[in-house]
Amino acid sequence: MLKILALGLILLQGLVQTKYSWGNCQPYELKQNFDATQYVGLWYQIYRDKDFIFEKGSTCSTAKYGPLSATQISVFNRAILENGDVYTISGRATCQGADCKVKFDWYIPTGSYNVVDTDYTSYAIVYSCSNFLFGLFKAEYAWILARTQTLASEATQIATLQQKVPGYDTNNLYKTPQGGSCVY
């Protein structure tokens, strides 16, 4: 009984600390002809939404994707927490083109993971938006990833995010610390 109560409190805390805004998710562009076989591999997080509760305070964040089937890829996220501990979580994404749904532990709701742009070899722009209460409000997040610890064209990728996801406030982006003292 105590475990169920503790789990409920953890989930409630996550819901309370999630960034919500009024209105529903607006239409946005996905990567055309998305090829998951080219997308798999290691990605470094260059920017993330500053309000994404599960990543607050983390550094050295990476995502490793692997092929499972024609429509599914494995997901392995890794980061260093503020206290220096290594945090990892594994999951699975099911994709229809660039529109993916990612599932981690049983108690974490399925999330959207939408690739809005990538060249597969240097950068990827990912966006997630979920409507609540019939579109009365929404939770939205964005990530800019790179195949290396730095990205030469950061400003270009931020401009692309603004173009492909109208209405997303790029002031919400937080530059994830990479390199330096990171051990991958």
UniProtKB/TrEMBL annotation:
One of its GO terms (biological process) is response to reactive oxygen species. GO terms for cellular component: cytoplasm. GO terms for molecular function: pigment binding. The keyword Signal applies. It holds the Pfam family Lipocalin_2. Keywords: Disulfide bond, Signal. Residues 1-18 form the signal peptide. Residues 35-178 form the Lipocalin/cytosolic fatty-acid binding domain. Coiled coil: none annotated. It comes from the Eukaryota. Belongs to the calycin superfamily. Lipocalin family. This is Lipocalin/cytosolic fatty-acid binding domain-containing protein. It comes from Stylonychia lemnae.
